[in-house]
Design a protein that fits this description.
CATH class of the largest domain: Alpha Beta
Largest sheet: 4 strands, antiparallel
Helix content: 25-40%
Shape: flat
Strand content: 15-25%
CATH superfamily of the largest domain: Zinc/RING finger domain, C3HC4 (zinc finger)
Order of helices and strands: EEEEHHHEEEEHHHEEEEEHEHHEEEEH
Number of domains: 4
Low-confidence stretches: 249-253
Radius of gyration: 26 Å
Number of strands: 18
Distance between the termini: 72 Å
Number of helices: 10
Strand order of the largest sheet: 15-16-17-18
């Protein structure tokens, strides 16, 4: 008799599943309930709660899962986490006129929706005004920048942590303030934090927010060199705050001349740190953006640099 019980093959786990153990989504695609809920819980545990993650897994569908499907099929604790993450990421929509702020007092944590661009907000529970940007006490913050406020109010533990992160070459995301180390050679960073979810971008060299349009124009040598518009402007002013000093160190002290034109100006000839100063990229009037091997003085095409370095290591 069991053989007569209707089943379907779940497109996720590719096994026969009883109809009674399946879940039909609003788009009319059907999967086993365990596969769907496990996928949802995994995404929510990583704070991936946008429709680009919580959607129908059927090929060429991608219909977002409804809040009702989540509410009636997830454990209460997981669904509450989904709601909290959804609220926390409300400000990711650049078109939104409001952002969600939580009181920084750990004993309070009351959420408030405030106008985007507001200087401060008032927590009625704590009876305190806080900076809307860095969440500092507005009474001590008003009239000074967030950086100045942090310098004056930074605890010894926060100072030590910041120094360790900066010395390791980590860069702080200007959007969510989380530190991270880039996974590859590109300095155009999509922040992967739970708050940014790869929707926010910044420069790993100078730390300023970027947009997709800045992917190449912000950098002198595409996004792979050690200098950019931001580092140049800050170095000209003698201001290295907010720079990834580990990355720009070479550009400030160029001791080896370009083998083609002889310039030692670090803003014209960059000794590429990833290649142990044995490859340079020269932007002088004579070289106009060419790669050279310091050792053999050979001019290289961009696609030849890595192989040439490996063969002559």
């Amino acid at each position: 008799m069991l053989s007569n019980i209707p089943t379907i093959e779940c497109q996720i786990c590719l096994t026969p599943v009883l109809i009674a153990n399946c879940l039909t989504l609003s788009c009319d695609h059907r999967f086993c309930k365990d596969c769907l809920t496990q996928d949802w819980m995994n995404n929510i545990s990583h704070s991936y709660v946008s429709p680009s993650y919580l959607k129908c897994p059927a090929d060429k569908c991608g219909t977002p899962v409804t809040i009702f499907e989540l509410r009636y099929n997830l454990p209460h604790k997981i669904f509450t986490q989904y709601l909290n993450c959804s609220n926390a990421n409300f400000q990711n929509d650049p078109a939104s006129k409001e952002v969600l702020i939580k009181c920084p007092n750990k004993k309070c944590q009351t959420p408030y929706f405030i106008f985007r661009g507001a200087s401060y907000f008032f927590c009625s529970n704590c009876d305190i005004r806080y900076c809307a940007e860095c969440l500092g006490d507005w009474k001590n913050h008003q009239g000074i920048s967030c950086e100045e406020y942090k310098e004056k109010n930074e605890s010894p533990e926060e100072y030590e942590l910041r120094k360790v992160m900066e010395n390791s070459g980590a860069m702080q995301c200007p959007h969510c303030k989380k530190y991270g180390i880039k996974p590859d050679g590109c300095n155009f960073i999509y922040c992967t934090s739970a708050a940014c979810q790869k929707k926010k971008m910044f420069c790993y060299l100078c730390g300023i927010p970027l947009t997709e349009a800045d992917h190449h124009k912000h950098f002198f040598n595409k996004p792979y060199g050690n200098d950019c518009i931001g580092t140049k402007e800050k170095l000209e002013k003698g201001d290295i705050k907010g720079l990834n000093c580990k990355m720009v160190k070479v550009t400030k002290d160029n001791e080896i001349p370009c083998p083609a034109c002889g310039t030692m100006n670090p803003e014209e000839c960059e000794l590429i740190q990833n290649f142990e100063k044995r490859i340079c990229f020269c932007k002088s009037g004579k070289c106009v953006g060419k790669f050279f091997c310091i050792k053999c003085k050979k001019e290289l095409k961009e696609e030849e640099v890595f192989d040439h370095y490996e063969k002559n290591e």
